[in-house]
Design goal:
heterodimer; A: about 110 residues; mainly beta; 5-stranded antiparallel beta sheet; globular; B: about 110 residues; 7-stranded mixed beta sheet; 4-stranded antiparallel beta sheet
């Protein structure tokens, strides 16, 4: 079955810097890759997703890139702000989630 | 719209007790899901339902049963709770397929002693 690995498990960056979180997947048939943000004590919420027919997608300060050959995709957050502090989860098509990355933005 | 709602918010059970977690959505979605979330493990799919009357096993179905009562409601039952089922349980829904935005409920925190 599908296996999704997410790195790093924790990430601390200075406010205003960029953050990058990477996921690898195993099933080459997967073609949908969402990213969810979960604030402390809250429910996960979709922040961006990408399908395999595109290599990059951007939404303001957030972008996702996909490399199907290497079977990895990454979340990029630019100009980080304190409200970006949360746990971020990637997922692959078959409803398999990564282990999560706890992102802390230091003022 | 309330979105996805779950009851109860928190529950304590003794080993061997049974209980049902309730989930409802008012977005007219066809697909519904049950996940469990454990520290360091991310979200793991227990069961999902692609439409009313259909259910399929996910990654960790053992010890659980589900019922898609109608289009709105999808319940998760623990017949004989075990300490290993201590977790936070999330219900979610999507309009048609898993490869779409999933909307999550607020979660149920379950402690099995």
């Amino acid at each position: 079955g599908e296996n999704v690995e997410q790195h790093p498990s924790t990430l601390s960056v200075q406010e205003g810097d960029s953050a990058v979180i990477k996921c690898t997947y195993s099933d080459s048939a997967s073609n949908y890759f969402p990213w969810y943000k979960q604030e402390l004590g809250k429910r996960p919420q979709l922040i961006i997703d990408i399908r395999s027919n595109v290599g990059e997608k951007k939404d303001q300060r957030i972008a996702v890139t996909l490399n199907k050959t290497a079977k990895h995709f990454s979340l990029h957050i630019t100009e980080t702000q304190p409200e970006d502090s949360a746990v971020y989860f990637c997922a692959a098509q078959k409803l398999v989630f990564g282990q999560g990355t706890r992102l802390t933005i230091n003022p | 719209n309330a979105g996805v709602t779950q009851t109860p918010k928190f529950q304590v059970l003794k080993t061997g007790q049974s209980m049902t977690l309730q989930c409802a959505q008012d977005m007219n979605h066809n697909s519904m899901y049950w996940y469990r979330q454990d520290p360091g493990m991310g979200l793991r799919l227990i069961y999902y339902s692609a439409s009313e009357g259909t259910t399929d096993k996910g990654e960790v179905p053992n010890g659980y049963n589900v019922s898609r009562l109608n289009k709105r409601e999808f319940s998760l039952r623990l017949e004989s709770a075990a300490p290993s089922q201590t977790s936070v349980y999330f219900c979610a829904s999507s309009e048609q397929r898993p490869q779409e935005t999933q909307y999550f409920g607020p979660g149920t925190r379950l402690l099995v002693l």
